[in-house]
Amino acid sequence: QNLANASKSGIRYIRLRSEGNNDNASTHFSEIKVFNSSGTNVLSGKAPILVNGATNSQGANNATDESYSTYIDLGDMRNSEKYVMFDMGVLRYDINSVQISTWTSTRTYYGVVAQTSSDGISWSTIYRGNITPNQLIGGVPSTVISFGMDTSTVLKLTADNYTLGIDANGNLISGITGNTQSVTIKGSMIHLDGNT
Q1: What is the model's pLDDT at position 57?
Q2: Could you tell me which of 100, 77, 60 has the C-alpha nearest to residue 21?
Q3: Which residues contact residue 165 at a Cβ distance below 8 angstroms, ignoring those fewer than 6 apart?
């Protein structure tokens, strides 16, 4: 499942794990960032609420401290269901991208998994793969999972109806539809602004 589909259901929790790196069996995350549609990192400064079975949670707050020179050391998570989990505090429908940065510019981290959830029980996998030194952000290997182009906003106008805000499957996820009989405005947050 991609981030766009997960975001439609709302996201409150994110959890991550990996299968170690090319130097040792440990998992290290330098930065985990979750950006909303305004570009704000809504995970900034949040401590993990769970370090599930990890042998070492050294520097627990380092993964969200906005510094690429620190990291959280989660020890050996291989062949297990160990995760580090964060709570954004509220159910969010405005998540635009997730950035995962690992430690040092020379390591490849294997089997990185990132999952999101609205309730902390049912999880959607938004990323599964290796993070290599091929893409560096802040001098460390990183990957960015974004809404991407798999969801498209479509403007469709005809003489008697219009639609704005369609996903790739043709479903109205957020937007305005109208015809000669009625107008429907749909969205998780609706703001109206004007002089009158």
Answers
A1: 57
A2: 77
A3: 153, 154, 172, 173, 174, 175, 176, 186, 187
More confident call, 160 vs 109: 109
Other CB atoms within 10 Å distance of the CB of residue 119: 11
Q: Which residue is it, tokens 């900034």?
A: 44
Quote the pLDDT of residue 83: 87
71 sits in the region (left: phi over 0; alpha: psi -120 to 50; else beta) called: beta
Q: Give dist(CA 116, CA 42) in Å, integer.
A: 14
Q: What is the pTM of this model?
A: 0.70
- pLDDT for the residue 88: 93
DSSP string, 23-68: S-SEEEEEEEEEEETTS-BTTTTPPPSEE-S-S--BTGGGGGSS-T
- 158-177 in b/e form (b: 16+ CB < 10 A) is eeeeebbbbbeeeebbbbbb
d(CA 26, CA 189): 41
**C-alpha to C-alpha distance for 86 and 31, rounded to whole angstroms:** 12
The pLDDT of residue 58: 66
- Measured distance between the N- and C-terminal CA atoms of the chain, rounded to whole angstroms: 42
Q: Which tokens hold the place of 82? A: 């160990």
